[in-house]
C-alpha cells in the first residue's frame, strides 16, 4: 500500500495539499486497489485524520501515534485559544466511523492523555474498525526511545 506520514499541525491548506499529493500519487501509479496508510504523530494525527475523510473512493487506513484527535479538547487542556474555524477531526466523527483506524497511546502521555483518545473513539457512531493500543511507559515524546514500531496485526 501507499504510506503517507505527517507530524505537522493542521490548517485547511495543509490538509488540502496532503490530500492532493496523496490522490496524485495513487492516480499516477494507477494503483487504486491498494490501501493508503495515513500515519500521523501528534498534530500530524490531526492532519492524517482530516485527510482520510476526504479520500472518497480510495481505501484508506488511519494510524496515529499520540495523535491529537480533538483540537478543542487539546487547546482547552493546554489553556490555549480554540479557533472555531479550524478543522477538527472530532467534528467529522461520522465520516471517520467508516475508516479503519489504529490509535497508539502512551500510558504516560501528559500532552494528549490516552483518556482523550478513548473519549474520541467512544464518540464514533458505529465505527467500522477502530483499535486503541497502549504502550504503558510511553510519554508524548519518547516513542522512538521505547523501540516502538507500528505493527498492523
Highlighted features:
five-stranded parallel β-sheet, 5 helices, 5 strands, 153 residues, alpha/beta
Topology:
Elements: E1 2-6, H1 12-28, E2 36-41, H2 43-52, E3 60-65, H3 71-77, H4 93-96, E4 101-106, H5 114-122, E5 130-135
Parallel strand pairs: 1-2, 2-3, 3-4, 4-5
Describe it.
The structure is a single chain. Helix 5 (114-122) links the parallel strand 4 (101-106) and strand 5 (130-135). This protein is globular. The longest helix has 17 residues, at 12-28. It has a 5-stranded parallel β-sheet with strand order 1-2-3-4-5, with helices on one face. The two termini are 15 Å apart. It is built from 5 helices and 5 strands. Helix 1 (12-28) packs across helix 2 (43-52). The protein is 31% helix and 19% strand. The model is unreliable at 1-9 (pLDDT under 50). The protein has 153 residues and is of the alpha/beta class.
Amino acid at each position: 500500500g501507499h504510506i503517507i506520514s505527517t507530524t505537522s499541525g493542521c490548517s485547511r491548506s495543509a490538509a488540502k495539499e496532503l490530500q492532493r499529493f496523496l490522490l496524485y500519487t495513487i492516480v499516477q501509479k494507477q494503483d487504486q486497489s491498494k490501501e493508503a496508510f495515513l500515519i500521523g504523530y501528534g498534530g500530524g494525527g490531526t492532519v492524517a485524520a482530516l485527510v482520510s475523510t476526504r479520500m472518497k473512493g480510495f481505501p484508506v487506513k488511519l494510524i496515529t501515534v499520540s495523535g491529537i484527535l480533538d483540537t478543542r479538547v487539546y487547546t482547552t487542556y493546554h489553556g490555549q485559544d480554540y479557533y472555531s474555524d479550524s478543522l477538527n477531526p472530532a467534528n467529522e466523527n461520522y465520516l471517520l466511523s467508516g475508516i479503519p483506524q489504529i490509535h497508539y497511546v502512551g500510558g504516560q502521555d501528559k500532552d494528549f492523555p490516552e483518556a482523550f483518545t478513548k473519549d474520541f473513539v467512544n464518540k464514533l457512531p458505529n465505527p467500522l474498525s477502530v483499535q486503541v493500543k497502549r504502550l504503558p511507559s510511553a510519554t508524548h515524546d519518547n516513542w522512538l526511545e521505547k523501540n516502538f514500531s507500528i505493527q498492523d496485526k
